[in-house]
Amino acid sequence: MFKNLEIFQASYAMARHSGARQAVTAANMANADTPGYRARTLAPFAESYSTGTDSSLRTTRAQHLSSSAIAGSSTVQFSDAEAAPNGNSVSLEQEMVNSVEIQREHNRALAIYKHSLDVLRISIGRG
Description:
The protein is mostly helical. It has one domain (2-123). It has four helices and two strands. It is elongated.
């Protein structure tokens, strides 16, 4: 029953997305001294999440393909940062800023999930 509530699906997707973004940022930081390494980015959740409005597909059964699965909207891209003389384009300062942004996105997902559970508990009289 709770898996069908869109608020829980959205907060779950937001938490998963922030985990994927953190993995990309960690890989960039780990390769900060690797010659020729190009920094990678993953778009923020708000840019890659489809709300289901307009002409996007809506899944009503587990066998249906979601529009995000078809479009592959959350793909890793190369950053536009300027490369150092050794060809590496990782900026540790920018990666640290990205890491803080990702942490806030993850905390926001957890807060949405927690507050949704509180509302659900209150609505059934267990709050």
